[in-house]
Amino acid sequence: MLQIYLRQWENHHFIPSFVGLIYLLFWGIWLPSSSATGTSLPTQTPQLETTTVAATATSQSPPSATATSSFPSDQDIISKADTYLSKLTKARLFSGAVLMARNGKVLVRQGYGEADRKRHIGNTAQTKFRLGSLTKQFTAMAILILQAQGKLNVRDRICPYLPNCPISWQAITIHQLLTHTSGIPDFTRFPDYQTTQGLPSSPTQTIARFKEKPLNFQPGEKFSYSNSGYVVLGAIVEQASGKSYEAFLKDHIFVPLQMVNSGYDHNNGDLAVGYRDQTSVADFIDMSIPYAAGGLYSTVEDLYRWDQALYTDKLIPKSLRDQMFTPFGGFGYGYGWGIGKEGDRPVASHIGGVQGFSSSIARYPNDKVVIRVASNREDVNSGTIGVQLAKMFFGEK
After folding, report:
1. Which DSSP string corresponds to 60-80?
2. I need a surface site. Which of 56, 144, 181, 288 has the fewest CB within 10 A?
């Protein structure tokens, strides 16, 4: 079981967790509620440098630091993963897409179940799924890109970037927002949240809901998973860059990485339909609310491009990437990633949950392995599925 350095992770209905506990701890964002009332149709996608089965590795990533000779063969992994996922789908326990890769070689890139049950459109590797809290790693990257540009520093206090900043926030740093140690209360736990999640809300309006609330603790004192903190980070990205959060990510992440099927969800209906379970469409959430804490969508193929870029200096230098993947304060959380170990194997991962969708991503950097699970059912435990697929990769029971 994944051993993550945990002390005060908090269980909540959409706070994701880390395996074994991964799913309970981090349960993504905004559950229960939402509907993506569209379809998922194949679109023009840059050709991946690898193929689904028996591909030739072309990644420029360095070789794995872990000997792979004792691992199962590629064909064995492919066969076991497809058997497992097909059984889940047949039992109506999974609907979505999966990508598994090692050393720049994609072994599994497959859709399961339906993106739209009424129209009988199947899920594919190009199907767009909401990311929920996987959004946070992109928000963190945006902050680090701005640091690389000299426009801010994670050690800065946040108030110079925010109009009408409350007195209680004066000591809070950007670093503390990134690591969920700011003490700002999570607005998605407020009593009125369920009744307001379907209404449009600008970042300023959303921040106004919690900016006058007392802090849960003094900044830096504890860890408490807070979507509010990442909403504030989105506002800081806009203030420091002079662009909207959506435009900044497009210009500095999605376009450079050719993530043409990724972006900010505006409830436009071009994603897979999100379901609550095997029978019901999910409740509606206006996607202006999740914002920089959970408002993005992507495909399993695009997130593979994202994973591969994180081994390079394409977006930020190594010193900043190392900072992103460093667990701070003993809480097992870096910048938008949970950092831990499975046995002696380092892993960086996150879970995302949003109305109608469940997602997980796990990176095993020493082995150059990534496992991406996306589902258009909010009741699917994507974290547990990811763990089972990892066991197949590493030859574990």
Report:
1. -SPPPSS--TTSPPHHHHHHH
2. 56
Buried/exposed 207-243: b ≥16 CB within 10 Å, e otherwise = bebbbeeebeeebbebbbbbbbbbbbbbbbbbbbbeb
**pLDDT of 272-295, one tens digit each?**
999 999 999 999 999 999 999 999
Cβ atoms within 10 A of the Cβ of 144, count? 22
Range of the domain at 84: 2-393
User: CATH code at 361?
Assistant: 3.40.710.10
Residue 108: strand pairing partners: 100
Token reading at 375: 């589902």
Backbone φ and ψ of 111, nearest 5°: -100, 150
Beta bridge partners of 350: 361
- Which pLDDT belongs to residue 217? 98
Two tokens at 156?
């800065």
Could you give the CA distance from residue 304 to residue 391 in angstroms, rounded to a whole number? 19
Residue 7's pLDDT is 27
What six digits make up the tokens of 49? 């440098």
Per-residue burial over 127-141, b = 16 or more CB atoms within 10 Å of its CB, e = otherwise: bbbbbbbbbbbbbbb
User: How many domains are there within the chain?
Assistant: 1
Question: How would residue 48 be classed by pLDDT, with cut points 50, 70 and 90?
Answer: low
C-alpha 256: how far from its chain's center?
19
Strands (E), the chain: 2-4, 96-102, 105-112, 114-116, 121-122, 129-130, 263-264, 296-298, 338-342, 345-354, 357-364, 369-375
C-alpha dihedral (241, 245, 247, 250), degrees to nearest 10: 110
